[in-house]
Design goal:
Layout (H helix, E strand, L loop, with lengths): L30 H17 L2 H16 L2 H10 L5 H11 L2 H13 L5
Helix pairs in contact: 1-5, 2-5, 3-4
């Protein structure tokens, strides 16, 4: 004989509607999850480097103010910075969502200084 502590609520329990979500681990596209984890790792690396924090926060502020394109033009003319670094900064600057996400991560982890 089996005794249950859970009452039989029968039809009083709301039944989920719509398709069931796929079982985790089976035929699930994990690319968004991997991308999110990579971003999180990047946010943490940025947060641990004072110079990187300062650069990303400045780029985010310039992006919000609409001043980033002019700064990138100035950076392109700079002779003391190698082309690979210029290209990387231009790529990062082109992703305003990423810059805002870095700023938000730093704000939430209280690493804005």
């Amino acid at each position: 004989m089996s005794i249950s502590c859970i009452p039989d609520l029968g039809p009083n329990i709301a039944q989920p509607t719509g398709p069931k979500p796929p079982y985790p681990g089976k035929n699930v596209d994990r690319s968004a999850e991997v991308h999110w984890l990579e971003d999180l790792e990047a946010f943490e690396a940025i947060s641990q480097d004072a110079t990187a924090r300062r650069i990303f926060l400045r780029m985010s502020a310039m992006s919000k103010a609409g001043r980033l394109p002019a700064s990138l033009d100035e950076l392109a003319r700079e002779h003391g910075i190698d082309d690979q670094t210029k290209d990387q900064l231009a790529e990062i600057a082109g992703d305003g969502g990423f810059l805002l996400a870095v700023e938000e991560y730093l704000r939430r982890t209280m690493r804005l200084h």
